[in-house]
Amino acid sequence: MSESTGSEGRRFPAPEQLAASANVGPDVYEQAESDRLAFWETQARRLSWTQEWDEVLDWTDPPFAKWFVGGKLNVAYNCLDRHVEAGHGDQVAYHWEGEPGDTRTITYAQLTEDVCRAANALLELGVQAGDRVAIYMPMIPETIVAMLACARIGAVHMVVFGGFSADALASRITDAGAVLVVTADGGYRRGAPSALKPAVDDAVSRTEGVRNVLVVRRTEQDVEWTEGRDLWWHDVVDRQSPEHTPEAFDAEHPLYIMYTSGTTAKPKGILHTSGGYLTQVAYTHWATFDLKPDTDVYWTAADVGWVTGHSYIVYGPLANRATSVMYEGTPETPHRGRWFELIEKYRVSILYTAPTVIRTFMKWGEDIPAGFDLTSLRVLGSVGEPINPEAWLWYHQNIGGGRCPIVDTWWQTETGAHMITPLPGVTDLKPGSAQTPFPGISAKVVDDEGNELGDDSTGLLVLTQPWPSMLRTIWGDDDRYVDTYWSRFGKEVYFAGDGAKKDADGDIWLLGRVDDVMNVSGHRISTTEVESSLVAHPAVAEAAVVGASDPTTGQGIVAFVILRGSAQDSGEDLVQQLRTHVSKDIGPIAKPRQIMVVQELPKTRSGKIMRRLLRDVAENRELGDVTTLTDSSVMNLIKDKLPATS
Ligand code: 6R9
């Protein structure tokens, strides 16, 4: 839980000029309140449907929702062709910048043609509506082209973050039953090519059902080639016709699967569908950021492999005909001012990123942003974890020049789109708080029994009404969907897994995960996943992992391990080996910050590890309640083992 919920007293009212011309004004809340379904129906009309729906919401079998029942549309058509048909073909969709400095400017007309070619290529490869396509790519335009090509032909994309390991990719390919993998030789990160194809080769060799691997050439690294299976993107896609007639799919046709960590080692495949998802990402993108498609330059500085990339690099911005910036690499390459240089170069007016990045910029110092012209910025956004007031104020002052509202957007892979956020032309901002449920969203704070709490209290965050971009299930596991999200307080209340506080004004402050999912730099990693990996190492008998608060990454991974009797070496070497092992196994993001070798772990009578106590240790606090431990003396043993610095 974050400690940043104190009563930071300052308020930042909406800038007058912005408020006067804002896309949405204060009356939007009342409109949504008076008839929630009619409100969402109005937002759905922002899209182009080939067949109108018969019913806005079917909630007769909760928690299985159907939105815009009977409606038909093509998601890619809504993101591309319709803008071209309306005369905006020459508008830039993406200013893409590679890490080495190469650039590509892609208009809506070009992107439409590229997506049509890719759609024709997928069809030639036998991909059909409903088939799953894995996408394991760097941050290059072809990633977006591949996603939209899937959407266009009704195939379901499953993007796996390029930082994840071959293991993670293999288990996701298997779970989703992917028939095709789209990848690249590699991408640029931290000034060097970073290979992707070897992980795909490894993953695919351990799975069944993948017929082809389509490879984009980006870094020109050497790649192994499996004849008959592997195909170059430029060989197959470039020769296709740039025309393709989009087919309309049902509003509830699956659009994509995105895997996210749960409390068990097996990741959950969150399923999103078409009509409701596109409605809510388009509307939130337009309202939360006050997007003006003719004049704004919009930049979500995040990876496409995160849900934030899906909703706010790809679908929301394209549905709204935004001009976006997309950047391949890391913020410190080739120098720490790279992002600010891009803001200056493209005159970015809306920037959306994660608190962990802001805290890194803080560490690097305000002189760096001060060296660039950032006056084009007018709205800033934050996502991924609670933003502590200190970072908020720094962001506001040093990047926003004291004049840009910051929208702190709370949402999840599961919610698909913004759920709790200020509105830039309406809300009096409070640094550190996401404040207000989005219009048409019903978020409440409840106690352990599900009773709604009043102002000035702390409890659990729940969503009490279905929303258009909600997840529809966990891929292949309806029971787990019900158990995980819709059982704690009954089948009609969504349990978000986050703690929340309502302050005296009724504003909501998010307090972090209440389950055992860690949040490292905005990435969710389950404790169980890291524990499983550690225990898989021959030297480790048992492991317990906790997320300890970390000034830069939000949370850092701290592991406690008990060695096997046969493991002689318990020194630094072994600890390094274990860290590398986890990094290779799951991905660098999961590498523990610290590993402590201990003799025993604190457990309850039912055998559950009491991570709460280990978190106390990892964060150097007095121990909380130890009465449910089988043996309370183990905590003394653990504390005795600690290095003085921990
Ligand atoms: C979009 C995204 C979801 C979890 C969520 C919460 C945390 C996200 C937040 C926030 C406080 C915010 N979270 N945004 N906490 N304030 N503005 O991050 O999705 O990767 O699924 O993570 O992230 O704990 O439950 P996802």
UniProtKB/TrEMBL annotation:
<dbReference type="Pfam" id="PF13193">
    <property type="entry name" value="AMP-binding_C"/>
</dbReference>
<keyword id="KW-0007">Acetylation</keyword>
<dbReference type="InterPro" id="IPR045851">
    <property type="entry name" value="AMP-bd_C_sf"/>
</dbReference>
<feature type="binding site">
    <location>
        <position position="537"/>
    </location>
    <ligand>
        <name>Mg(2+)</name>
    </ligand>
</feature>
<dbReference type="InterPro" id="IPR025110">
    <property type="entry name" value="AMP-bd_C"/>
</dbReference>
<feature type="modified residue" description="N6-acetyllysine">
    <location>
        <position position="608"/>
    </location>
</feature>
<feature type="domain" description="Acetyl-coenzyme A synthetase N-terminal">
    <location>
        <begin position="27"/>
        <end position="79"/>
    </location>
</feature>
<dbReference type="InterPro" id="IPR011904">
    <property type="entry name" value="Ac_CoA_lig"/>
</dbReference>
<keyword id="KW-0479">Metal-binding</keyword>
<feature type="binding site">
    <location>
        <position position="513"/>
    </location>
    <ligand>
        <name>ATP</name>
    </ligand>
</feature>
<feature type="binding site">
    <location>
        <begin position="384"/>
        <end position="386"/>
    </location>
    <ligand>
        <name>ATP</name>
    </ligand>
</feature>
<keyword id="KW-0436">Ligase</keyword>
<keyword id="KW-0460">Magnesium</keyword>
<dbReference type="InterPro" id="IPR042099">
    <property type="entry name" value="ANL_N_sf"/>
</dbReference>
<feature type="binding site">
    <location>
        <position position="308"/>
    </location>
    <ligand>
        <name>CoA</name>
    </ligand>
</feature>
<keyword id="KW-0067">ATP-binding</keyword>
<feature type="binding site">
    <location>
        <begin position="189"/>
        <end position="192"/>
    </location>
    <ligand>
        <name>CoA</name>
    </ligand>
</feature>
<keyword id="KW-0547">Nucleotide-binding</keyword>
<dbReference type="InterPro" id="IPR000873">
    <property type="entry name" value="AMP-dep_synth/lig_dom"/>
</dbReference>
<feature type="binding site">
    <location>
        <position position="540"/>
    </location>
    <ligand>
        <name>Mg(2+)</name>
    </ligand>
</feature>
<feature type="domain" description="AMP-dependent synthetase/ligase">
    <location>
        <begin position="86"/>
        <end position="467"/>
    </location>
</feature>
<feature type="binding site">
    <location>
        <position position="535"/>
    </location>
    <ligand>
        <name>Mg(2+)</name>
    </ligand>
</feature>
<comment type="function">
    <text>Catalyzes the conversion of acetate into acetyl-CoA (AcCoA), an essential intermediate at the junction of anabolic and catabolic pathways. AcsA undergoes a two-step reaction. In the first half reaction, AcsA combines acetate with ATP to form acetyl-adenylate (AcAMP) intermediate. In the second half reaction, it can then transfer the acetyl group from AcAMP to the sulfhydryl group of CoA, forming the product AcCoA.</text>
</comment>
<feature type="domain" description="AMP-binding enzyme C-terminal">
    <location>
        <begin position="529"/>
        <end position="608"/>
    </location>
</feature>
<dbReference type="InterPro" id="IPR032387">
    <property type="entry name" value="ACAS_N"/>
</dbReference>
<feature type="binding site">
    <location>
        <begin position="408"/>
        <end position="413"/>
    </location>
    <ligand>
        <name>ATP</name>
    </ligand>
</feature>
<comment type="similarity">
    <text>Belongs to the ATP-dependent AMP-binding enzyme family.</text>
</comment>
<feature type="binding site">
    <location>
        <position position="498"/>
    </location>
    <ligand>
        <name>ATP</name>
    </ligand>
</feature>
<dbReference type="GO" id="GO:0003987">
    <property type="term" value="F:acetate-CoA ligase activity"/>
</dbReference>
<dbReference type="Pfam" id="PF16177">
    <property type="entry name" value="ACAS_N"/>
</dbReference>
<dbReference type="Pfam" id="PF00501">
    <property type="entry name" value="AMP-binding"/>
</dbReference>
<feature type="binding site">
    <location>
        <position position="521"/>
    </location>
    <ligand>
        <name>CoA</name>
    </ligand>
</feature>
<protein>
    <recommendedName>
        <fullName>Acetyl-coenzyme A synthetase</fullName>
        <ecNumber>6.2.1.1</ecNumber>
    </recommendedName>
</protein>
<feature type="binding site">
    <location>
        <position position="524"/>
    </location>
    <ligand>
        <name>ATP</name>
    </ligand>
</feature>
